[in-house]
Design goal:
With 249 residues, the protein is an alpha/beta fold. It contains eleven helices and eight strands. The structure holds 2-phosphoglycolic acid.
Length: 249
């Protein structure tokens, strides 16, 4: 099955109204003729700006996290329906920065994933091992565990409405990219693991690679058989770099 390539930007906690305006308009014009699916995941306060700038373009937008709850007394939290109010199509769940700094456990991530699906958002589920885990040779175990909690909660068919992003924690924002072969190995593992539950779902599942993707390494990464695009942090803040990565896809 041929899967469309998808590139999603993760702005993290960067941006301001004027810098976003120029970044969004540059990305919009620079990517208008590209074939890849493209999205940007922006900080919550800028969702309205992303919606205003990107409506009618070929670029979708989304958020970087959401609450596992529908509504209620959860000070500081943002629900999935609030995101759909602003036209979001995507939401990142389980990013390693949420897991490590904000205590998002596998169970919380699985609840957020389920809550996203419930309101029609496409969750981008991040999985990946730390350096210590890779060095202890438990990369496979960690990634499968992170995936299995979501499958146990939402069912394997839920992955037809989701995207998985493999992001080795040691490669995020460090300039150390996983080699195309290292990334492909884990992507293939994810796909074959999903295939044991449902081969059709596995064949159609978009699996993105994330971790120091740049225009210079994107083509080789995206050329691997099980890498269907990228989740881009730092380089998504530089219009030319992000457009270059989208062009590579
Ligand atoms: P990076 O971040 O591209 O800056 O390494 C990727 C991510 O955290 O999603």
């Amino acid at each position: 099955m041929s899967r469309p390539k998808f590139v999603a930007g993760n702005w993290k906690m960067y941006g301001s109204l004027p810098t976003n305006a120029s970044l969004l308009s540059a990305v919009k014009s620079g990517s208008s003729s590209l074939k890849a699916q493209i999205a940007v995941c922006v900080p919550y306060p800028y969702l309205a700006q992303a919606q205003a700038e990107l409506a009618g373009s070929n670029i979708a937008w989304g958020a970087q996290d959401m609450s596992e709850y529908d509504k209620g007394a959860y000070t500081g939290e943002v629900s999935g329906s609030m995101l759909t109010d602003f036209g979001c199509r995507y939401v990142i769940v389980g990013h390693s920065e949420r897991r490590s700094y904000y205590g998002d456990t596998d169970a919380v991530v699985a609840s957020k994933f389920a809550a996203a699906l419930k309101v029609g958002l496409t969750p981008i589920l991040c999985v990946g091992e730390t350096l210590a885990e890779r060095e202890s040779d438990i990369t496979d175990k960690v990634v499968i565990r992170q995936l299995d909690v979501v499958i146990a909660t939402s069912g394997v068919e839920s992955l037809t409405k989701a995207v998985v992003a493999y992001e080795p924690v040691w490669a995020i924002g460090t300039g150390k990219t996983a080699s195309p072969a290292q990334a492909q190995e884990v992507h293939a593992l994810i796909r074959s693991h999903v295939a044991t539950a449902n081969a059709g779902v596995a064949a159609g599942l978009q699996i993105l690679y994330g971790g120091s993707v740049k225009p210079g390494n994107a083509k080789e990464l995206f050329g691997q058989p099980d890498i269907d695009g990228g989740l881009i942090g730092g380089a998504s803040l530089v219009a030319d770099d992000f457009i270059g990565i989208c062009a590579a896809a």
